[in-house]
Amino acid sequence: MRPNTAIPLSFFQDNMIVCTGEDPKELTIAFKSSSLGKCLRYHQYRCYQAWKFSGVTVVISGIGTGCMEPLMWELLDHETLGDKRPKRLAMIGTAGYISDSGFGRVYVVDGAYPVGCGVRLGDEHLPVRPRFDGHAELGLPLAEEMSTDRYFTCTPAMTDPRKVLAKSHDPRLLEELEKYWKPGRLISMESLQFYHFAKVFGLPDTQYIAFRGVANLADQFETQGDYSQQVLTDALSHAVKTLLK
């Protein structure tokens, strides 16, 4: 048994969808609008839940690197799983967006950079990119992303004394914000981690791609709940079509 997720071996399929840091109820609502069909089995343990459908299994976890690392290890542990290991993984979820518009739009994350992130990589390894056959031909817009473990303080805004104090204790966060904060980039807490762990824990033939949709504009968190359902529904639809085409 996998100690952190406890996902039964029977749930593992070639195609897996990973959802992180979202509301499980909104995810199950998104199921109803997808082509997944009937849920065959359900599993829950700690902060992880899994739904098995015909042809694809969907797993949801908590937010950030601390939830992603054990999840991705146990999903891709080929030494334990053998031929049950997933071959194609898609991530779905919400994101912030460094822009003044774009609510609800879903992007393929075409490259990701760490900013205040538990995964630290040298410039020679950046950006971390998807590895999925034909991902540039899906007809979806592409966007780069800043991936962080800082929900509120991953922003250059210096008007809130709490954010100023947090940044004063983390010079690297300031440096990375200055380096990677650019208009047109997404902000989320998992895409770089997903790509990185899929690459280092998976085998060379493991394919992976992330679909993130805009739920809020940069440093404007109050709209996330207004758009999260739309984003999850659309991102799930794109992920299912991509994996099962």
Summary keywords:
245 residues; alpha/beta; Rossmann fold; five-stranded mixed barrel
How are the SSEs ordered, and which strands pair?
Layout (H helix, E strand, L loop, with lengths): L14 E6 L3 H9 L8 E5 L2 E6 L2 E6 L3 H11 L2 H4 L6 E10 L8 E9 L27 E6 L13 H8 L2 H10 L5 E3 L2 H11 L5 E11 L6 H21 L1
Parallel strand pairs: 1-4, 1-5, 5-9, 6-7, 7-8
Antiparallel strand pairs: 2-3, 3-4, 5-8, 6-9
Description:
The chain has 245 residues and is an alpha/beta fold. The chain has a single domain (9-149, 184-244), classed as Rossmann fold, CATH 3.40.50. The chain has helices spanning 24-32, 65-75, 78-81, 161-168, 171-180, 191-201, 224-244; strands spanning 15-20, 41-45, 48-53, 56-61, 88-97, 106-114, 142-147, 186-188, 207-217. The longest helix has 21 residues, at 224-244. The two termini are 31 Å apart.
In short:
With 245 residues, the chain is of the alpha/beta class. It has helices at 24-32, 65-75, 78-81, 161-168, 171-180, 191-201, 224-244; strands at residues 15-20, 41-45, 48-53, 56-61, 88-97, 106-114, 142-147, 186-188, 207-217.
Q: Residue share in helices?
A: 25-40%
Q: How many separate domains make up the residues?
A: 1
Instruction: State the shape.
Output: globular
Beta-strand segment tally: 9
Rg, Å, rounded: 17 Å
Secondary-structure-based class equals: alpha/beta
> Number of helix segments?
7
CATH homologous superfamily designation: Nucleoside phosphorylase domain
The biggest beta sheet is recorded as: 5 strands, mixed, barrel
Give the low-confidence spans.
none
CATH topology description = Rossmann fold
The amount of beta strand, in percent, is: 25-35%
Q: What integer is the average pLDDT?
A: 95
How does CATH name the architecture?
Answer: 3-Layer(aba) Sandwich
| Sheet with the most strands: spatial strand order | 5-8-7-6-9
C-alpha end-to-end distance: 31 Å
Helix/strand order, N-terminal first: EHEEEHHEEEHHEHEH
Give the class-level CATH name. Alpha Beta
